Amino acid sequence: MNQKTLIATSIKTALVASIAAASTASVSAYAEETANVERIEVTGSRIQRQDMETASPVTVIDESAIRAEGYTSVDDLLQAQTSMAGAAVGSSTNNGANGVAQVDLRGMGAQRTLVLLNGRRMVNSGSGADSSVDLNSIPVAMIARVEILKDGASAVYGSDAIAGVVNIITKKDFEGFQFDVQGSTTDKNDGETGEISALYGFNTDTGNYTFGAAYSRREGVVQSDRDWTPSAGSSYTPGGTLGGKYQDENGEWKDLETGYDFTQDSYYQTPNERYSLFANMTQELGDDIVLTGDLLYTKRKSNQQLAAQPASTKLNVCGADGVAPGEPCVDLTPEMIAAGIAPDSTGRVEYRRRTTDVGPRIYSQDTDTLRASAGLAGSLDINTGMDWDFSYTYGKNSAKTSVANSINQKKFDESVYNNFDDWMNGTVSQEQLDEISYLEESDGGNEQHTVSAGLTGELFDLEAGAVAFALGAEYRHESGYFNPDEVIVAGEGTAAQQDPTKGSYDVFSIFQEVSVPFTDKLTGEFALRFDDYSTFGKATTWKVGLTYEATDDLMLRGVAATGFRAPSITELYGGNSGSYDYLTDPAGVAKDSQILVNYTSDENLKPEESESYTFGIVYSPSYVDGMSLTLDYWRFKVDNAISRRDTQALMNSCYAGDSSACEMINVTHENAQIGNWDGLTSELTNVGYQDTSGIDFNLNYKFEGAGLDWTINNDTTYLLNFEQDNKDYTGTIDGNFGAYAKVRNNFSIQASQGDWSVMYFNRYISEMENLTSPEDKAEAVLYHNVSGSYHINDEMLLTLGIKNLTDEEPSRVNNGSDGGTVPEVYDTIGRQYYAGFSMKF
C-alpha cells in the first residue's frame, strides 16, 4: 500500500547498524537499506522485520524540520507538539526548576515519559536524585531525528514508559566536516540565543567514526520588560511592615496599600550556557560481529533570578500575655500602638521585610552529565538466521547548585531583636546585612548502569509469513543523592527546610515479543515483560497489538497494554522538604498566595499501574498521490499513582470541620479556623489516579503545483478527558497543574523549488477555563511563524525565520505560575528573529 512507501522513505536504519547503535531497546522509526539485509528496526518493538507497519502511532521530527523551525533546545521542540499537555518545566521556568528542562507527554507528568538516546536509557539528570531526564544534556546540534512513541510501552521498555517514549537519535555514519551556527533575538533586543557546532566523521574499510562539539548560550528576559506584564503586589516590602503596617517617610505607621512589584527581578526566559562533546562509532570486527559505541558529555551552567528573599519573624512583645520572663522581646512605641499595632493571642507581632538591600536571589547551577554506551552485535546461523546483541550503558550526572543572597532566619531573628530600632527606622548597616545573608550551596547527582542482551529472529513459517520473535534480559542499577546546604537542613534559612536524599535500587528484567502474521492482512504483536525490583518486588506487563490491511489504501491498527512506573529515589528516600505552594487560605488570614507546605516521601511506596489503549486508521488514498492520513483514539488510565493529595481541598475540608482532612495535612481544626497553617503537610501516597483520553489526527500531503514542490502537514490533538484524583481538568489551566486545552493544532505549509524553500506554520491552543474560577477564561491563542532556507551552493545553507510573527501576548491566567500567566504554556518572550548558517565540506 502507499503508506508503506511513505514510511519506507522516512525510515532508514540497517539491521546490523541499528542493533548495534540502538541496542535491543531501539525505537528507531526508520531503516537504512543495505545490500544484503532487508529487515529493519520498527518503532516500539525489538523485532526486526521487513515491513514497516506497526500498531503503535509514532511522530518523527527530523533534522530539517528542527532547523526550519529554529529550535535550539530539545524541550522547546517537544513542548510545541500537540501530544504534550500539562506544563513541563523548561527555559521559561524561573522558580523551582533549577534550570532543568523536561518533556510531558499527554500531561501525565515528566516522570511517566521515558527518554531514550539512540534506543538506550538516558541517565536521569538535574540537581540530584532526579526522577526524569534533563533535556538540556542533549544538544540540538547532535540530533538526527526525534521519535515520539505515543503509546504505553512498559511491556517493551520497562518502567517510566506509561505515557510513551521519546527516543532521540544522534548523527552517525557521517563523512566530512560540517560547521553550523544559529542564533535568535527578540524584537525588543533581548533574550538572545546562539549555538555553534562542528561535526567531523570519516569512514574506514570496516567502520565509521563521527565526532561533534557544540556550544550554546541563552540570555535572560526580565518580566517587567514586557509591557503586558501586570504589576505584582507582595506584602513583603523593602521598608518592612510590622503588624501589617509600614512606616512612611514622616515616621508615621500606616496600612500597607501597595505591595512590592517583584516582576522587575524575575525572568521569563532564564539564562543558560552549555558545552557538549559527542561521538559515535561503528566498527566491524569480522565474522559478522559489529562493535558500536556512543559518548555524550554536557556541561550546563544556568541561572534564575527571583526578587530579594522575603524574610519574616514573629517578635515577642514585652509584657504581652504569653511571653515568659527572660524571653527576647521588643517594646512597641506609642506611635506603633496608636497606629493599631498590637500583639496577637500568643503575645507576638509579625515583622516582614523584602531584603532588597541584600540583593535579589540568584540561583546558579553547574551540572555535568556523562553517558557512554558500547555494544556488540552479530548473527547466528540458526533457522533463517538470528541476530544477537549485548550492550553496556553508563550514565552519571553531578551538580553543584547555589543561591546567592539567601537569608539566615536564625541570624535575622537575632538581628531584629538586637537592633530593633535600626530595622524599624531603615538604618540597618552593611555589617548587619552581611551577618544575616549567606551563599546557599548544595550538591547532588545520579548514576546509572545498564547491561542488556537480546536475540531476534524467526521461529517458523505460517501460510502468511514467518513468525518473528525477540527476547532478552537486562540488569539496571540506579542511584542518586542530594545534599542541601547545612543552613537549610538545620531549618535556619528563610527558604523552606529540606533534608538530604540518598538511595539506590536494582532491577532485573526479562522480556519477549512475538509477531504473528495470521493472514496476509492481519498481523498480531505480543509482548510480555517481567521486572524484579530490589525495592518493591516484582511486576509483569504485557502488550497486544493488531494491524489489519483492509485495502491497499486503508490500514486499521490497535494496541492494548499494561504499564507501570517504579517509585523514584526521591519518592522513596527523599527527606522532608518545604514548598511554598500557591494556595488560598479558607480563613482569609494569609496575606500571600504562597503558603509553606512540608513535603514527605515514603520508603514503602508501590509502583504505579496503568492501562493504555490506542485504536486508529492509516489511510493513503491511491487516487491522491502523496497524501496520508492517520486518526487515532487513545486512552491512558493510571492507578495507584504516586501523588500528593489535593492540599487545597483538604484545607477547605479541614476548615469546614472534617477531622480526617485535618489529620491528613497535620493541622488542627482550631488552627485552621484562625488561619494558622503551621505544620501543613503533604505526603506522597499510592492513592492517586489519572484517566485521560483523546483523538490524534495527522494529515501529510506532498504534491507538485505551479512549478513548486509543496508539503502540507497538520497535527491535531483533541482532548476528550483528563481526570486526576476526582478532579476534572479537561479544558482548564492553572499555575499548579498546567494546561489541558481541548484542542491543540499545528499546521505547516512549505513550498520549495531548487535551492530555496519557504514555510509558514502556526500553533493553536484553544480557550481554557481558569481552574479556580471557571467564569474567567484564558483566551485561545494562535501563533504564526515563517521561515525560509536557501542553498547558496552545494556546501552552504542559509536559514531565516520569525517566530510569533504577530507578537501575540500570552493569555492571562488568574492563578498562573508567573507574570499573570503560565510561561510554560504560552509564549512570554514575543516576536523573535532567528537565522542559521551551515557549511559542509
From TrEMBL:
SUPFAM superfamilies noted in UniProt: Porins (SSF56935)
Chain location of the short sequence motif TonB C-terminal box per the record: 824-841
Annotated signal sequence range: 1-31
Pfam families on file: Plug, TonB_dep_Rec_b-barrel
Membrane topology of the entry: Multi-pass membrane protein
Cellular component GO terms held in the UniProt record: cell outer membrane
Region Disordered, annotated ranges: 222-245
Record-annotated TonB-dependent receptor plug domain positions: 52-165
InterPro entries documented for this protein: Beta-barrel_TonB, Beta-barrel_TonB_sf, Plug_dom, Plug_dom_sf, TonB-dep_rcpt-like, TonB_rcpt_CS
Protein known as: TonB-dependent receptor
Keyword Transit peptide: no
Subcellular localization, as worded in the UniProt entry: Cell outer membrane
